[in-house]
Each structure stands twice: as structure tokens, then as C-alpha cells.
Amino acid sequence: MSKVFPRVGRRRALQGTAVGAVVLGLLLWWLLPLGEKPPSGTIVFSTGTPPGVYQEYGERLRTEMGKDMPGLTVKLLNSAGSQENVERVATGKADFTIAAADAVATYELRHGSGAGRLRGVARLYDDYVHLIVPRGSDIKNVGDLRHKRVATGLPDSGVRLIAERVLQAAGIDPRKDITAVADGIDTGPARLRQGKIDAFFWSGGLPTKGLVALAKQGGFRFVPIDDDLVARLHRQGEQSRYYRATNIPESAYPNVQQGVQVPTIAVSNVLMTRADMDPRLTEWVTRTVIDSRDGIGRHVHSAQLVDVRTAIYTDPLPLQEGARRYYRSMKP
Fold it and tell me: Which of 80, 46, 61 is nearest to 303 (CA)?
């Protein structure tokens, strides 16, 4: 036997519909980032040299930005590294990039074109200096590099900048006392294995994919960069204050380190843009960087260190307005 339900009055039905629409609108506002239509257009992101961390992080960040901002096209541009990245953003050749803090400070101190327009988006993770030699090498410290064939990184790379400063701190003139070779992480490991160089410098997140394969072969070891050399490095000038003494943890390259930490230098990386970049776009990019930490971190170990509590410290750059808006929105 069927039941007869009372009819709902027209006014009550309309009220219920209105309330439902409001609730749905609030729910969509909560679920959609920033409660508005995502930015669209095209941006250029300057990365680094394959197979370095900048390149891999940039590729995975582009994927995450595509999920959050489907109408945004992100063009990746390979680079030599930090120094070239800073110059590209400052002069408008790229819109976003990652660069080490020492390279940013150096560009500013040299009054590079457009330096005053540079702004920070997020502090990401630290680069660690790797000084790599064959396992059987007689090189025990930085001073032993004298008269050796040493890869100091590509021109305009962050590696080149820090390698030359480390050598100078050890009393070695990188233009006279060694045979400097312009190899980066893309070619250095193979040339070391082939005996074409005696050592090479690398500065990157841990672990760097370009070294993992070489580490599995167990054919190299790390040369320590001790605290006393770091202290001498700090006396080189304002830009050197961004270097700190630390250790490569034993878990970074276990086949090589065999449970032993390696003293070295670290410097923070900054995601950066310009002051004239659309603040709304920058706010969305900042949100994606923070929200994608775990997803990217499953593939790029360094990304696991991105933290909203430390991301705001983009020294030597002030925060871009859009990034500032995002961090303010995250305050309890």
C-alpha cells in the first residue's frame, strides 16, 4: 500500500534550493584553490642541467602546476645552473627559476641588470657540495687538487661559483694551479670513470640522480671539506655568508659512504621570480609548491624538505607580493 507524502509548499521549496546553492558555492570555494578561476597563459621556467636536481624538480613541478592550473603552459628551459638562472629571470628571459642563495647575492653585489626586480617565492632545499675523486686517488683534501685536472662546473653555473671559492680558500688559484675543465653533472661522472679528469665538483640536492648510478658501481669517493676551510671561505665576502658547514649524511650514497658522514658545505636554494610578475599567478605557484611537496618528494628526495614554516625565508630576496599573500593566508 503506497504512502502519500505531504506536498512541500512552493516557497519552502525555493528556500531549500537557495540554501543548497549557497552551501554548494561555499563548498566549491573551499575546494578550489584560492576560490577562483586558476590563472592561465604561458610562463618560462629556467631549470638546470640533466640529470641534476633542478631539472628533475622543474619537470615534476610543471606537472603539478598543470593539475592546479590547466590553462597555464609552462615552458622549461635548460640552463648551466644558478648563475645563468638568476640572470635569465632578472632580464626577463625566464619568469621563474631556482637558484642558490650565494649566486643570487653575487648577482646583486655585482649590480647585474635587473637585480633590483628579483623577488623570492619560496626557500626550497639545500645544495650540498660534492668533491668527487676515484676510489684509489691520492687526493685526500682540497689542497691536494693542486696540479690536477679538476672539473669545476659549467660556465655560469652555481657549481663553478662555489668550486672556485673553495679552491681559493684552500690557497689554490683556479686559473693557474689546476687544469680546470668545464664539466657538469651531465659529463663529469663518465669522464672521471674514464680517467680523463682527476676530480670534479658538484653542488646539488641529496641524492643527485646523476651520481646514484656511479655510486652503485662504487668507483669513487668523496673528499671532505672541513670546518677550517669553511671558516676561510666565510672571509671572502658578503656573498659567502650563505655557506654553512654540514655533512653529507651516510644515507645519501650508502654504497660509497659505507656508514660514514662526509664534512662539506651547504647553501640554500630559492624559488624566485620578479616583482612585476602577476601576484595572483605567483600566489597560485606558491600554493602548488607547498601542496606538491609529498608528491614530488617521492621522486625528488630533496623536495621532502620544503616546509611552509621555512619557505618564507628567501634571503637575500624579499618575498614577491603573491607569495606574501599565500603565506599570510596560511597563518592560523
Answer: 61
User: Which whole-number Å values give the CA distances from 285 to 101, 238, 320, 331, in the listed order?
Assistant: 20, 30, 11, 18
C-alpha grid cell, residue 200: 670534479
**Spatial distance between the Cα atoms of 118 and 60, rounded to a whole number of angstroms:** 24
H/E stretch holding 244:
strand 244-248
pLDDT band at 214 (very low <50, low <70, confident <90, very high): confident
Beta bridge partners of 247: 263
What's the N-to-C CA distance of the chain in angstroms? 57
Q: What's the CA gap between 116 and 174, in Å, rounded?
A: 31
| Residue whose cell numbers read 626557500 | 123
The string of DSSP letters for 189-212 reads HHHHHTTS-SEEEEEESSS-HHHH
Closest by CA to 240, choosing from 82, 101, 81, 83, is: 101
Measured CA angle at 224 (ends 222, 230), to 5 deg: 140
Tens-digit pLDDT profile for residues 87-114? 999 999 999 999 999 999 999 999 999 9
In terms of DSSP bridges, do strands 199-204 and 118-134 run parallel, antiparallel, or are they unpaired? antiparallel
